[in-house]
């Protein structure tokens, strides 16, 4: 049965392939499925499948205008030997929680899980819709999406990709990964501002009708690789289904028993995918939304008020340094009982006054969520204590989630089995991780790659291929611009 996609802010309805191609609705809203489909296989059946097979069983329910051959072809190209483990997303049990390692892909962050398949979905969608224009991917990144998108789209025929990131607002390893990216169709630009400035600038470019017409005439069309694209969000549902069915198949839980999921959260896409999985019938009890000191989501879940009018704090978990969580709009749409006018009104208030407040009825519908946050010292303490207790090393973002889970368990006494989304390799944030384990590594004279080798020895883990590749890689992208000059950069790159 076909599922169409509608805008959170209007009546527009499109097919799955059209939603993937467009990325953002013409009215500025995000595409959401008209209904959340139920899992069509039992948990036991899914437990006997490998990652690629589970991916097909989940994605076929959402991407209903893709043929079986098309979808399986995209999945086979995405989840192959670019991942360093056959299971794609392994589960590691440590200190009473199950860490779902989502960083075994090409760029050692969870964004690979979706951005490995998005280019293939997009090219297939373009053929299905007989699109003859070149697709220009515009993306804002807080550190991980950028490199994963660049790696996915580099030298893909019929595409170009432009990534904007906050100069000085990502880790040194994250920046080195991006600025050394090869590919004649790639451009990386550091902006003078924070991630919210980059994300707002990209959204403005998408809604600039004059620019769209100008580029259409020149043979280009915009699309997005951010999690606002439904082609990013749906593949993220897969790994929650996969994780649950692994736990059941291995006898760690009984099929049908509830689990909690804890997610380090910035733009809200990753935890929204878990929420969609729950609504498909996966037995997820509570969704623990973990924030760092930019705790706009924590305050929202506690008060019903979303307010970005606050100090922006640079932390050791930069991918979560976000005050405008774009994917929350999809949840707000559900909370309004799918009222596009009310959703548009709330989003307009956020854009204008920087805040909005949901009704008590809407707040009551948030009971599946628990908001928590961890300070820098708490996240560092978690990295250190987990290592000292178990020898297992986690990155700064995962540490925020683990610290929030510890606080939740202490507050509630709830011992429900819990999966923690481990969103990046500790090697991506080596300096912070090593400082957390031992303060002697605060010494600024120790180079980033020297710390990489020390972490490898300390954790008894081989240095990931993604890190080895950038040790001596030349810098290929040096572009920088002000946050108000992003349109000029796009025009120049496209020869306009």
The side-by-side strand order for the widest beta sheet comes to 4-5-15-10-11-14
Tell me, what's the shape? globular
Distance between the termini: 43 Å
Fraction of residues in helices? 40-55%
Describe the structure.
The chain is an alpha/beta fold and 496 residues long. It has a domain at 91-107 and 231-462: Rossmann fold. Helix content is 45%, strand content 16%. It has helices spanning 16-22, 43-47, 51-62, 68-78, 112-115, 118-128, 144-153, 172-179, 195-207, 209-217, 230-249, 269-279, 296-303, 328-335, 340-352, 360-364, 376-390, 396-412, 430-437, 448-459, 465-470, 486-493; strands at 5-7, 13-14, 31-33, 91-94, 97-101, 134-140, 159-166, 186-192, 220-224, 259-264, 284-291, 305-307, 355-357, 369-373, 418-422, 479-482. The strands form four sheets. The protein has a six-stranded mixed β-sheet, with helices on both faces. A five-stranded parallel β-sheet has the order 9-6-7-8-16, sandwiched between helices.
């Amino acid at each position: 049965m076909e599922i169409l996609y509608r805008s959170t802010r209007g009546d527009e309805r499109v097919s799955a392939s059209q939603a993937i191609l467009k990325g953002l609705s013409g009215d500025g809203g995000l595409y959401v499925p008209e209904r959340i489909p139920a899992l069509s296989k039992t948990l036991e059946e899914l437990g006997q499948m490998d990652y690629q097979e589970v991916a097909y069983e989940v994605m076929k329910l959402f991407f209903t205008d893709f043929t079986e051959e098309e979808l399986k072809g995209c999945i086979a190209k995405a989840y192959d030997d670019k991942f360093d483990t056959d299971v794609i997303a392994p589960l590691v049990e440590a200190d009473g929680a199950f860490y779902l390692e989502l960083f075994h892909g090409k760029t050692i962050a969870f964004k690979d899980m979706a951005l490995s398949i998005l280019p293939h979905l997009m090219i297939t969608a373009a053929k299905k819709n007989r699109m003859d224009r070149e697709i220009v991917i515009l993306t804002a990144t807080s550190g991980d999406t950028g490199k994963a998108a660049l790696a996915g789209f580099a030298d893909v025929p019929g595409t170009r990709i432009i990534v904007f990131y906050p100069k000085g607002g990502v880790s040194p390893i994250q920046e080195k990964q991006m600025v050394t990216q090869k590919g004649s169709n790639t451009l990386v630009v550091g902006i003078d501002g924070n991630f919210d400035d980059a994300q707002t600038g990209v959204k403005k470019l998408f809604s600039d009708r004059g620019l769209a017409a100008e580029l259409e005439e020149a043979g280009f069309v915009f699309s997005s690789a951010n999690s606002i694209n439904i082609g990013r969000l749906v593949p993220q549902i897969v790994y929650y289904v996969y994780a649950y069915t692994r736990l059941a198949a291995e006898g760690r839980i009984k099929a049908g028993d509830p689990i909690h999921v804890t997610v380090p959260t910035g733009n809200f896409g990753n935890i929204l995918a878990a929420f969609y999985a729950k609504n498909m019938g996966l037995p997820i009890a509570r969704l623990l939304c973990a924030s760092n000191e930019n705790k706009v989501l924590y305050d929202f879940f506690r008060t019903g008020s979303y307010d970005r009018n606050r100090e922006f704090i640079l932390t050791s978990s930069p991918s979560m340094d976000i005050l405008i969580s774009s994917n929350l709009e999809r949840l707000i749409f559900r909370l309004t009982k799918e009222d596009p006018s009310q959703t548009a009104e709330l989003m307009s208030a956020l854009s204008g006054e920087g805040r909005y407040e949901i009704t008590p009825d809407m707040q009551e519908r948030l009971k599946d969520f628990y908001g928590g946050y961890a300070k820098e010292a708490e996240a560092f303490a978690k990295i250190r204590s987990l290592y000292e207790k178990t020898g297992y090393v986690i990155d700064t973002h995962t540490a925020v989630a683990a610290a929030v889970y510890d606080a939740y368990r202490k507050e509630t006494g709830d011992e429900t089995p819990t999966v923690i989304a481990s969103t990046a390799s500790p090697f991506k944030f080596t300096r912070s991780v090593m400082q957390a384990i031992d303060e002697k590594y605060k010494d600024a004279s120790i180079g980033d790659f020297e710390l990489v080798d020390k972490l490898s020895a300390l954790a008894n883990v081989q240095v990931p291929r993604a890190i080895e590749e950038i040790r001596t890689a030349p810098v290929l992208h040096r572009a920088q611009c002000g946050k108000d000059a992003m349109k000029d950069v796009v025009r120049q790159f496209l020869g306009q």
